């Protein structure tokens, strides 16, 4: 099962169990080198990690510190050192801003829709695909449905617009038979359904691949034994297939929860003009428009920081819950 | 190197039998004796579901590709996307590739994808090897530094301030450097390195080979599958990147293909495409012809289709399964 955990490597990286026997034997010898000797000994290994460390410090850790602008009245002309500190003013302004709550509400609605309508679909399709007797057919269908996962959001939205849009393929056919054309792409009321179907089109195949891998790890003799004991197909699915999928389902749920507040900046920003900000404003677009576009950097940064912290808490909490139910979760301590 | 035979034994590429060969040699698989035969209704609903699912993916792609190759009269006749071939031409492609906005955007995207992928793969493989020997000095704190970035991102505003502070606004490097390192990809490679038989590496160390030499002559050749998967992830990421471009690139001379797609196809702006003209006419009234729009879409899809069989080959290996996150 550990193969399937996307964060399996991370888990192992932090654990003690990655020390190999021969390493233990080496460590067991009473030999305590000074730090300097060890640094000199491993200098080529350290040198190899240097580019990544530098890139991460500059492009991940410096901007993390840059979140300090959330506590300032930042002005681009004087920069961070010159801007005055205002404490939590930006955050209290944020909490009183109806636009912020509206963006948060939209974000959570979209996440909820995706959990209910998108999440179970790949599981069902994977079970269906797995029941196919011909391996080549399984591979072929898997190959077809996985393909859109590698398309950019611009392409996904373009394809949807060309098929479902007001001037798109289906509307053309409807006009030909004298019916009203569709306005799915511009209707704010059904926007969340549109987003969910785009996500399904793009990412269902990815879920199918992950779940198929989990299904492949089930020992077929379990099914045989159950069948010999008189278990029907449904009972075999309930007692063998679903328990085997449980760790993967929980893992993906945790990861999804960590992303609960990020619902695809690219997907939303591409369609915000078409359906209007009322329906398409989510936290990420709120940060972008209030911060970068309007130039109120401190305000946008406050919203972004709040989002980052809540997401982190959500992942940690979900992981804790998974541990309580005896699941491995994303990482182990 | 004496390690040659062992190297071959360790890397057993799955014999890629072509799909056509499989269909040719197709024999109905025998159902195991314990498994009951599904009823006709179950079989029919299975087939219908799978056909619908596959068509939902393939049909739009078919319509887009066909329209890009269709003549203007075929498009007018169809009143939009063409689904039945009716007059084919490649004029849309010759037009967009004869210089101008799209050609320029292709150049930017090729540069960003090529240079970005090379840079990312090199630094990631180096770091993965540098961190793969347990017990080496400082490897734990460095690993920790890398892993934290998976759980907490800095946010849009500080990134923007940093990139503008570095003077990278409107520079292609703004499309490369901020996303050059993916903690996840490093961990995938490191995980693979740690699964390599240590005997070969230890014997090379005893023979006096340095870490650089071991990585270049023994480890890297053995790790071709995992390195190509990671290169693919980085490559697709750079190729599809849109978020960074919209944040950091205002000058439409430096637009990557994805931004051109958005402007001309999604937003229906027209592009004047005469010779070396680089100004963009923001004329909403006169959208580019549908064939040209779809040709730009196809340009942005073809590279994905070209590399896709390589992803397919790694379906079975645990590497990809462990790696396909989001």
Verbal overview:
The complex is a heterodimer of chains A (333) and B (326). With 333 residues, chain A is an all-alpha fold. Chain A has a single domain, classed as MetI-like fold (Orthogonal Bundle). In chain A, helix 8 crosses helix 12. The N terminus of chain A is likely disordered. Helix content of chain B is 63%, strand content 0%. Chain B is an all-alpha fold. Chain B folds into 2 domains: 53 residues, no CATH class; 228 residues, MetI-like fold (Orthogonal Bundle), CATH 1.10.3720.10. The longest helix of chain B has 30 residues. At the A-B interface, helix 1, helix 2, helix 3, helix 4 and helix 8 of A face helix 2, helix 3, helix 6, helix 7 and helix 8 of B.
Question: What is the class of chain A in the CATH system?
Answer: Mainly Alpha
End-to-end CA span of chain B: 40 Å
- Number of β-strand runs of chain A: 0
CATH-derived architecture of chain A: Orthogonal Bundle
Annotation, overall tally of beta strands of chain B = 0
What share of the residues of chain A does DSSP label as strand, in percent? under 5%
- CATH homologous superfamily title of the largest domain in chain B: MetI-like
Short summary:
The complex is a heterodimer of chains A (333) and B (326). Chain A is mostly helical and 333 residues long. Chain A has one domain (90-324): Orthogonal Bundle (MetI-like fold).
Keywords:
heterodimer, A: 333 residues, MetI-like fold, 71% helix, globular, disordered N terminus, B: 326 residues, mainly alpha, 2 domains, 16 helices, disordered C terminus
Can you lay out the helices and strands and say which pair or pack?
The complex is a heterodimer of chains A (333) and B (326).
Chain A: H1 8-14, H2 21-28, H3 35-41, H4 43-66, H5 79-82, H6 89-95, H7 98-118, H8 120-130, H9 135-146, H10 153-164, H11 169-176, H12 191-216, H13 220-228, H14 233-258, H15 265-275, H16 277-280, H17 283-293, H18 297-324
Chain B: H1 4-10, H2 19-24, H3 40-68, H4 72-78, H5 91-96, H6 101-130, H7 139-151, H8 156-165, H9 183-195, H10 198-206, H11 211-222, H12 224-240, H13 243-248, H14 257-266, H15 290-313, H16 318-323
């Amino acid at each position: 099962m550990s193969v399937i955990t996307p964060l399996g490597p991370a888990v192992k990286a932090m654990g003690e169990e990655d020390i190999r026997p021969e390493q233990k034997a080496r460590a067991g010898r009473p030999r305590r080198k000074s730090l300097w000797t060890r640094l000199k000994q491993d200098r080529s290994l350290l040198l190899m990690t240097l580019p990544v460390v530098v890139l991460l410090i500059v492009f991940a850790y410096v901007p993390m510190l840059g979140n300090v602008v959330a506590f300032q009245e930042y002005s681009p002309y004087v920069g961070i050192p010159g801007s005055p500190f205002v404490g939590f003013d930006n955050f209290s302004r944020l909490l009183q801003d109806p636009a912020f709550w509206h963006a948060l509400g939209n974000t959570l609605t979209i996440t909820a829709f995706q959990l209910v309508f998108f999440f179970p679909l790949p599981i069902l399709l994977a079970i269906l695909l797995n029941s196919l007797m011909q391996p080549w057919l399984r591979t072929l269908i898997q190959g077809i449905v996985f393909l859109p996962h590698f398309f950019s959001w611009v392409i996904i939205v373009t394809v949807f617009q060309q098929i479902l849009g007001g001037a798109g393929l289906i509307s053309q056919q409807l006009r030909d038979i004298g019916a009203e054309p569709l306005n799915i792409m511009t209707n704010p009321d059904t926007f969340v359904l549109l987003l969910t179907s785009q996500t399904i089109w793009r990412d269902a195949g990815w879920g199918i691949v992950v779940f198929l891998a989990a299904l492949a790890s089930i020992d077929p003799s379990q099914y045989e034994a159950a069948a010999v004991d008189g278990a029907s197909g449904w009972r075999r699915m309930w007692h063998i297939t679903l328990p085997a999928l449980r760790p993967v389902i929980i893992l993906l749920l945790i990861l999804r929860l960590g992303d609960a507040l990020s619902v695809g900046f690219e997907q939303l920003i591409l369609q915000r003009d078409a359906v209007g900000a009322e329906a398409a404003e989510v936290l990420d677009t709120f940060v972008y428009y209030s911060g970068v576009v309007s130039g109120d950097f401190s305000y946008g940064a406050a919203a972004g920081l709040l989002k980052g912290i809540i997401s982190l808490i959500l992942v940690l909490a979900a992981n804790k819950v998974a541990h309580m139910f005896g699941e491995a979760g994303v990482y182990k301590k | 190197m004496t390690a040659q035979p062992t190297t071959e034994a360790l890397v057993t590429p799955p014999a890629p039998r072509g799909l056509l060969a499989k269909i040719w040699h197709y024999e109905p698989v025998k159902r195991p004796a314990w498994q009951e035969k599904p009823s006709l209704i179950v079989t029919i609903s299975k087939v219908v579901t799978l056909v619908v699912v596959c068509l939902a993916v393939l049909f739009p792609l078919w319509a887009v590709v066909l329209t890009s190759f269709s003549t203007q009269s075929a498009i007018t006749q169809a009143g939009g996307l063409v689904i039945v071939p009716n007059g084919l031409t490649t004029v849309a492609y010759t037009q967009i590739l004869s210089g101008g906005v799209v050609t320029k955007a292709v150049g930017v995207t090729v540069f960003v994808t090529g240079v970005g992928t090379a840079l990312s793969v090199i630094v990631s493989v180096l770091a993965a090897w540098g961190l793969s020997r347990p017990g080496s000095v400082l490897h734990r704190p460095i690993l920790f530094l890398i892993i934290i970035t998976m759980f907490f991102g800095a946010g849009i505003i500080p990134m923007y301030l940093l990139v503008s502070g570095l003077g990278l606004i409107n520079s292609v490097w703004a499309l490369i450097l901020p996303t050059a390192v993916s903690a996840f990809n490093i961990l995938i490679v490191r995980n693979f390195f740690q699964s390599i038989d240590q005997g070969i590496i230890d014997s090379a160390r005893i023979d006096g080979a340095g870490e650089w030499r071991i990585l270049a002559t023994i480890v890297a050749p053995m790790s071709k599958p995992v390195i190509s998967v990671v290169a693919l992830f980085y490559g697709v990421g750079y190729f599809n990147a849109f978020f960074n471009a919209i944040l950091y690139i205002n000058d439409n001379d430096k637009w990557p293909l994805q931004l051109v797609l958005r402007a001309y196809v999604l937003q229906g702006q027209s592009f004047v495409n005469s010779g070396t003209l680089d100004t963009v006419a923001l004329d909403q009234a006169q959208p580019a012809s549908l064939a040209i729009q779809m040709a730009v879409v196809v340009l942005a899809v073809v590279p994905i289709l070209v590399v896709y069989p390589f992803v397919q080959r790694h379906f079975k290996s645990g590497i990809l399964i462990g790696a396909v996150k989001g």
